[in-house]
């Protein structure tokens, strides 16, 4: 079984066999998109933050956000939409932001010396977005559940400690970018 | 007739009489919000930009964007929503951005020496936002019409030349912020 | 003694007497700029965050950031530079950012119901910036001292609890905006 | 002769032979950083924009900005610094921004149907930054010259028409991000 998202199996590994991708992972930074799903009120204000519960490759249960690779020939928006649909189901109705600018750029390295974000498999650079969803989220694949929390809960040390790859800091940065960090 | 928006009469001048406001205008910078209404496609990409046609105080017809003052005790989101509703009607269904950060800050001074933005009446500082609208726009008050254009048209020299107070540059900056400047 | 910054006496209250300013404070939102001074390394990465120790009006010692009002006819950059010099001294050599866009906008209200930021005296809206300083900081006026901390220390609950007006959240948001939130 | 930057030969192709890189280019998006060098005044305001003159692979002379690939194991800041030094020389003294967030993300595809940015060789995604330089620029390698222009000149149609890969739009977006678009 191959994992090319952050613990997310991808049925279409971009015209690369598992062996080829494994080889490239040691030689090139891979481009990712990540998304923090949120609920907003009538004035656009974030009221809830969605955090995914996921069974990791070792059977451990961790929290994460929507995350996945950008394929060859795919725009960032297409990749973002594809991974949101994969992780939240087809009825989430995400509202992708009008601006292509991420709220932050997370650099994942195999070892934690260069960055606070770690991905043992590879060097990955993720453009991260906050995405309001207006529909019903129904996590698919290996995501067990989406938990909706207040921004303050999502930014808490308890939640951060359960997130994989150091993504607690990225989640807090997302909450800061919408002015909701406590 | 009093104008407290940029050419926009405001029925509720924030608990200030016209005389009082006129006096303050010579002594304090006033805080404004401005909004560029846009239409987006299913991937959040801006497809059209809305520009208002307005009859100015001298009877001249100029183009502008949504603009108005922030009142005492009013949040930026409330002010933004109020002015969007005033200029686009109650059925525009604006989607205010999740982030409070403007795409740009425009500084208006009575004379054009300090900034490219000019407001003869006052020193005003405007926080400017791009706001997708999903409903029907029905301009009210003194706005005659909203014209929907492609981003390239809205960024053209012809449109810029018709905009009041130097807002052509602000409109282009809005279009740049969503990655659609030609 | 009058305070028109956040606990900062201002020798030039913008051609307004104290009485006039007191009156306006109940009727108009006032425009502020705030700055978080930082030290950066050769790659622009934030290594230290400067937090001011200040004696508040009640004699209490609190932590704060650089903060002050924008005067009539003054650009945001001029206001930012003036308040940085006032609070950090003339040898701080601040490098104002090339972009006019703040990392966040903080809305201060007299009561804490509308926002997490509180200013008992007034409704103030602050454009907040991260500003690298390259020289020597020598706090003047009522700022007793500037303390340099790692980003993680500055984002800690202990520091947040000591900051006035809810600025702990703003300081954390600043740290998030430079990718240094733990 | 191999070009792995946008027209920039790179002596160290990231532990990949030319053949290997050529193969990967058809199968994965490559991660780039791009930089618009600027001069700023004492208040951080952009006064001049640097545009590179470069001899393209076909011998044609085009204008471009600093651009190059991010290597495996390299941080974005290290890549940015390396390419700035390569294109502007060792005495440019670039001041990398404190925030890791790009002013825009440019998506280059071999054909112009998906984006306004084109790179015939590959699918590349570039994080683009505005970088003040304080020293002396002495372009090396295949960059013939750096031309300093006012923001208005750099944003002109004449300059845009000479830029490779559609980067005129990116240059204008950079100028918009610092509030200097005319």
UniProtKB/TrEMBL annotation, chains A, B, C, D:
Gene3D superfamilies: Nucleoside Triphosphate Pyrophosphohydrolase. This is DUF4916 domain-containing protein. It comes from Amnibacterium flavum.
